[in-house]
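Cross-posting from the chemistry board since nobody answered there.

I work mostly on the small-molecule side, so proteins are not my area. We synthesized pyridoxal-5'-phosphate and want a rough idea of how it might sit in this target. Sequence and SMILES are below. Is it possible to get a predicted 3D structure of the two together?
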Amino acid sequence: MMKTYLLTPGPTPIPENISALFAKPIIHHRTPAFQSIFEDVRQGLKYLFQTKNEVLILTTTGTGAMEAAATNLFSKGQKVITINGGKFGERWTKLAKTFGLNPVEILLPPGNAVEPDQLEECVRQHPDAKAILFQASETSTGVVMPTQEICRIASQAGMLSICDAITACGVFDLPMDDWGIDVLITGSQKALMLPPGLAMIALNEKAWKAHAQAELPRFYFDLSKERKAQAKNQTAWTPAISIIQGLQESLRMLRNEGLHNVFKRHDLLARATRNAAKALDLELLARKAPSNAVTAVVVPSNIKDGKQIPKIMRDQYGVTIAGGQDELEGKIIRLSHFGYCDRFDVITGISALELVLHELGHSFELGQGVAAVLRTYAEASQR
Ligand SMILES: Cc1ncc(COP(=O)(O)O)c(C=O)c1O
């Protein structure tokens, strides 16, 4: 028997009380029972997004909501600025190209966040761009982007700020209204502790005005249609009913914990993971701006095949973490610490990592990483 643990940046583990809901008989979505759940969920999402705007629920994955942003806000040939700090930033550029937009890409070296000066320079050179599309947390590199600064720059330039917060919303503070985030996106299989299948997108007044002018074709992801339906606690199409039932419960859990405490928990787990990496003589990919969602650790140079680390952790110890993607494959590993994740999940992950690094010949004293995690917790509890 081997117990298994999921420490990936999506899907993340699902709490038992939510999993139990999925065993119940399905209900129909054009009923008062569903409408009552939906109404509650709409309120809960406003709390999560820290907004007065309507948060629309789409039955799709995160990429679907990114596509909805592209097709609902622009017309063919319009220029947009994309911040490519990794695989998901690159996705904005690909989406923009696919739909006939004209993306100007800021390409960052892996592990870097955009510098406000760099973005301001790009905005100066491209004053005709309509929007800045970026990730609040670039999952492929474990970098946190300066969202508040990006939104300020976009607002001053009269551009829209379109924030993919798929591994950020519900992980760290991203107050949509206070920071003037014009469009905010998240997905169910991340901090919301649900299976994949739902994405959420909120637009503020400025974004709805852009939507009214936008001419790109759209059908399934027509946000006007969704807004109209959702105002009546309905969805335009058949939704992922069961996941919406789960969402009601996960939003209740987040509200009970309190967003501020949720952010504090993630901050503690992220700091513990980073301290463990340091204690194990491992380098972080994101040296300056590490995300509290996921920690990307550079594979030490004495380990030739970095892909072995997640593989052995999973096959021998039952601990699933993520490796690197594309050009980072075999070069980094990514330990996730958000969603339904608490202090002893980090200890499990670091313990398994230590065993595998030891087996692969990385030089350190066993237990150093775990000790660093424990010290981080002990210090936090004394404050
Ligand atoms: C930052 C970010 N953006 C977009 C996506 C794509 O979401 P999905 O795989 O749900 O389509 C992910 C998924 O991991 C992500 O982490």
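Reply from a structural biologist on the board:
Welcome over. Reading the output above for you: The pocket of pyridoxal-5'-phosphate is lined by residues 10, 61-63, 88, 135, 139, 164, 166-167, 187, 196 (CB under 6 Å). The first strand starts at residue 5 and ends at 6. Happy to explain the token format if needed.
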